[in-house]
Design brief:
Elements: H1 5-8, H2 24-30, H3 40-50, H4 63-69, H5 74-88, H6 92-112, H7 115-124, E1 130-135, E2 138-143, E3 152-156, E4 164-176, H8 178-181, E5 187-188, E6 206-207, E7 212-224, H9 230-240, H10 247-276, H11 282-296, H12 301-318, E8 321-323, H13 328-334, E9 337-341, E10 352-358, E11 361-365, E12 376-380, H14 386-402, E13 407-411, E14 414-418, H15 421-432, H16 437-443, E15 446-453, E16 458-465, E17 469-476, H17 478-484, E18 487-490, E19 493-496, H18 499-511, E20 515-523, E21 541-549, H19 554-565, E22 569-574, H20 578-588, E23 596-598, H21 599-603, H22 610-616, E24 619-621, H23 625-637, E25 642-646, H24 652-657, E26 660-664, H25 670-674, E27 678-680, H26 685-725, H27 734-751, H28 776-802, H29 807-829, H30 839-843, H31 846-864, H32 866-872, H33 879-906
Parallel strand pairs: 9-22, 9-25, 18-21, 22-24, 23-24, 25-26, 26-27
Antiparallel strand pairs: 1-2, 1-3, 3-7, 4-5, 4-6, 4-7, 8-27, 10-11, 10-21, 11-12, 13-14, 15-16, 16-17, 17-20, 18-19, 20-21
């Protein structure tokens, strides 16, 4: 494992690289420092040379620049054109409402912007404010930003590591590195070098800036500061990630641009035709064209889409998903791949004893998490008598309870561990076996102990009991214990140790994704009051193994199955070793033999080959931030819409890169939450799938709003165009068109935003990322319904004129027919993929019923109130005319239901 500085490439004007593989004395020599630390003068010189130990502050755009950028959008131009059209007609109230929508959109976007800057600030806050150093041979407290390369730093339990350190001396050191590696268990550290190719999570000779010392003490030499640290590299990655535009925004931008140009083109052609062919005075032609634009532009559509998204936010919040960016609601509905962290999201993040391996057999343990409920089920091996197995299992459980510092307590209905998670699981095991931990520990008081040590990988206690005498209990790495033992328990006796058999059992447990601890006991000398490693040299009796697992969440397994039925791929990204990750993936239902790629293997795959590789891989193990970022980008290059979960600082760049970044509300760092578009309030994978369900409902409802709005406007536009082309009176005046749009868009159109999910919403594949807002089916539906509206409007218009009615009465009939058709069409469009002739479809939702009631009252006022007659030039209708209007709505409903049936049966369109 020897590595010279030349092998790794250190120069005096840059921080050393690969120092985890160097011996500590080589690092000290290369950095021209000593165990007594730098001198004050040398530290000042290095501070001037290398700069301060801090991450660069974010330079944000000027607030005015950020605010006005929200107006540079085709949809906003589209809205402003509608406002201009309304004001040209003198309808300043409508114009004011539209401008208000634009301003609200800009303000909301302005407030939500700056997410990346906040994420970077959250990362900067992880760096400790002060550190204990050796300078001039004396211990001093120095502000963290003044730490330089070559400083000697002292660490104790509870300290946050102030810079990247190569450890020189360690004592029982364990560091929580979850923010960098994703590992839930604290990492054991030592001063010995590790192989150069070791991944971040396996570099036991290093302590990284921003991580937290869980136990022990250490001394280390600073090898990287500021942006050169691991956390600094993540900060740089985060700044380099460019925000993505959501599928909905892309589609609305395309639709807004295309629709605006088409409307302007048709309006210009119509204006020229009216003036040059029909001989209109240009001012009259302009009024007709403005009426056309007012009818064509669905000015209420953007507001209704925004409200639909907002309703989706409320629904998701009820399902433990907090949305930080409004468009993320719809993006979730388009998600085709979910990349999920394992610990706490797919699993419970609570270690659980799954098996006891005793000399005479195996004991399976039921239950999940720290809840001390479950059974111990003995599986005999050969002809071993039950009494021997009970003795062996009791001895193993007692050893696990007494060689243990954890406590288990219940609060607010949940069980929590104070101390090491695996030790907490051993306490839960003891309770399941019928022991009272406090009483048993009182009966066996501890006289002395050897704390867990990374070098020996053991914990030892000396306990005394009136009936049991003086006993030494040992727990630790099974391979270390097997070397120390020569015998194993057999009931109340001992027999020679079968190392080969125990090694096979350890391998079998590891293959199931279990972490394994070994246990041994020894009778101590009477009146012993202390224990040391010399006491372990002989006489240790191996009593068995305990297999632990972080159990999969049951709801996560069901959610993964639902994802598969919905055509969504699930990929697990974890800091675990490949074998453990594969075992958990099998239990979660990610495949009988899931394909696994490690971080090392990812490093050897070129960017061009990566997309095909990640598409076929279900599990990624031992990954670092660059790996996660490459995985997300590779998936996106195949056209996938990627949702990515994360909780650590190491996840922030990939969370920002993903189409939907999903932060963890409980265990997530502020950096991860700020880089996310959605935060899970319960850290549960099932909540992501519930959010995808709601996202699909939101998109369905947006399609319904579009499918309802465009053809209703289209009928009005065709009526204006037909009147100009064939030179007859307008079936509706411009002000009447505005009335229809005003009354129905804010009521009937808005009611569709509250629609519940259709039955098959999670039994269809995700929609293609590049699929437009208007599919072939919706284009057909817009054209068909527009012409049906035109036929109905012109039919009743000419019918009224033919019986001698005045123009005002004929126009009143047309307005009422249009509104009634819109009401009946609303009931039809509530179900785009199935018949509306069902009890739920006929009764409607409360929102639909309220909207229809409001429209009915408004139309009665429009038709029968004298003040409305003077404002809109309308006339009252008699009873028979009212029946005729309603019968036309019923007839159109039957026509469209028949069309829906034929389209479904013939499979004419891809919905």
């Amino acid at each position: 494992m020897e590595s010279s500085t030349a092998d790794i490439g250190f120069s005096s004007d840059s921080p050393p690289e690969g120092v985890h593989a160097w011996h500590s004395d080589e690092v000290i020599a290369a950095l021209e420092t000593s165990l007594s630390g730098l001198t004050a003068d040398e530290a000042n010189k290095r501070l001037a040379s290398y700069g301060r130990n801090q991450l660069p502050a974010v330079v944000g755009r000027h607030p005015l620049s950020r605010f006005f950028a929200h107006f540079h959008n085709a949809l906003i131009y589209f809205l402003l054109a509608a406002a201009l059209a309304a004001s040209l007609l003198g309808h300043f109230v409508d114009a004011t409402v539209i401008v208000a929508v634009v301003l609200v959109n800009a303000v909301v976007g302005f407030v939500q912007e700056g997410k990346a800057e906040k994420a970077l600030d959250a990362i900067r806050s992880l760096i400790a404010p002060h550190a204990q150093l050796l300078r001039d041979g004396r211990r001093v407290k120095v502000p963290v930003e003044e730490i330089v390369l070559g400083d000697i730093v002292s660490l104790e339990a509870g300290d946050r590591v102030p810079a990247d350190l190569r450890l020189i001396r360690t004592s029982s050191l364990r560091i929580e590195e979850a923010i960098l590696t994703g590992e839930s268990m604290a990492a054991e550290k030592q001063a010995l070098p590790v192989p150069i190719e070791a991944t971040l999570g396996d570099r036991h000779s290093m302590a990284y800036s921003g991580t937290l010392v869980a136990t022990g003490q250490a001394t280390g030499v600073v090898v990287a500061t500021g942006s050169d640290t691991e956390i600094g590299r993540i900060s740089t990655l985060l700044r380099e990630v460019q925000p993505l535009t959501t599928p909905l925004l892309q589609q609305i931008n395309r639709f807004g641009t295309q629709f605006t140009w088409i409307t302007l083109g048709i309006a210009a052609l119509l204006f020229a035709f009216a003036v040059l062919v029909r001989g209109y005075i240009w001012t009259e032609a302009l009024v007709a064209v403005v009426a056309l634009a007012v009818g064509a532009i669905p000015e209420g559509l953007p507001a209704v889409i925004t409200i639909t998204l907002a309703i989706g936010v409320q629904r998701m919040a009820r399902r433990n998903a907090a949305i930080r960016q409004l468009p993320a609601v719809e993006t979730l509905g388009a998600t085709s791949v979910i990349c999920s962290d394992k610990t706490g999201t797919l699993t419970r993040n609570e270690m659980t004893v799954r098996r006891l391996e005793i000399p005479s057999g195996r004991v399976k343990v039921t239950g999940s998490g720290y809840v001390p409920e479950g059974r111990l089920e003995i599986e005999p091996a050969g002809n071993a008598p039950d009494d021997k197995q009970l003795m062996e299992s009791d001895s193993l459980i007692l050893t696990g309870l007494l060689c243990n510092d954890a406590q288990l307590h219940q609060a607010d209905g949940d069980w929590h561990v104070i101390g090491d998670p695996m030790e907490g699981a051993l306490v839960a095991l003891a309770i399941k076996a019928g022991l009272n931990p406090e009483r048993k520990r009182h009966e066996w008081p501890r006289l002395d102990e050897i704390p867990f040590d990374a070098q020996h990988r053991l914990m030892v206690t000396l306990n005394f009991n009136v009936s049991g005498g003086y006993q030494i209990f040992v727990k630790g790495a099974p391979d270390e214990l097997l070397l120390l033992c020569s015998t194993q328990a057999y009931g109340d006796a001992t027999v020679p140790l079968d190392r080969e058999a125990w090694t096979a059992r350890i391998t079998a447990a590891a293959a199931q994704g279990e972490r394994v601890l070994g246990f041994a006991v020894k009778s101590a000398q009477p009146d012993a009051n202390q224990v040391d490693f010399a006491d372990l040299k002989d006489g240790l009796v191996f009593v068995g193994l305990v297999g632990f697992i972080d159990p999969p969440r049951e709801e996560a397994m069901a959610a993964i199955e639902e994802c598969h039925s919905a055509g969504i791929e699930v990929k697990m990204i974890t800091g675990d070793h490949a074998e453990t990750a594969a075992a958990i993936a099998r239990q979660l239902g990610l495949g009988e033999n899931p394909s696994v790629l490690t971080g090392h293997e990812l490093d050897d795959i070129t960017d061009s080959d990566l997309p095909s590789m990640v598409a076929e891989t279900s599990v990624f193990a031992r990954t670092n931030p660059e790996h996660k970022l490459r995985i997300v980008r590779a998936l996106q290059s195949t056209g996938a819409i990627v949702a990515m979960t994360g909780d650590g600082v190491n996840d922030a760049p990939s969370l920002k890169q993903a189409n939907v970044g999903v932060g963890m509300g409980h265990k997530g760092t502020d950096a991860a939450k700020e880089a996310s578009q959605m935060v899970l309030l319960d850290d549960n994978f099932a909540s992501i799938v519930a959010a995808v369900h709601e996202g699909r409902v939101v998109y369905d409802n947006i399609r319904k709003v579009v499918a309802w709005t465009l053809p209703t406007n289209g009928g009005e536009v065709l009526a204006v165009i037909t009147a100009i082309l064939f030179n007859f009176a307008m079936p509706m005046s411009a002000v009447q068109i505005l009335w229809v749009n005003l009354v129905t868009a804010g009521t009937l159109g808005l009611a569709l935003a509250f629609e519940p999910a259709e039955p098959n919403v999670m039994h269809r594949r995700p929609r293609p990322a590049k699929q437009g807002l208007l599919t072939s089916f919706l284009i057909w539906r817009v054209l068909l319904v527009s012409f049906l509206f035109l036929a109905a409007a012109l039919g009743i218009f000419f019918y009224s004129l033919s019986r001698g009615d005045e123009l005002a009465l004929a126009r009143t009939l047309v307005v009422n027919v249009i509104v009634v058709l819109e009401v009946f069409y609303l009931f039809n469009v509530r179900y785009l993929n199935m018949s509306s002739f069902n009890l739920r479809g006929v009764l409607g939702t409360p929102a639909v019923l309220i909207a229809v009631t409001v429209v009915l009252i408004a139309q009665l006022a429009f038709t029968y109130l004298p003040v409305m007659h003077s404002l809109f030039d309308t006339r009252p209708l008699d009873f028979m005319d009212g029946l005729l209007v309603i019968s036309m709505g019923v007839a159109m409903m039957f026509v469209l239901e028949a069309e829906k049936y034929l389209v479904r049966r013939g499979g004419w369109f891809d919905h």
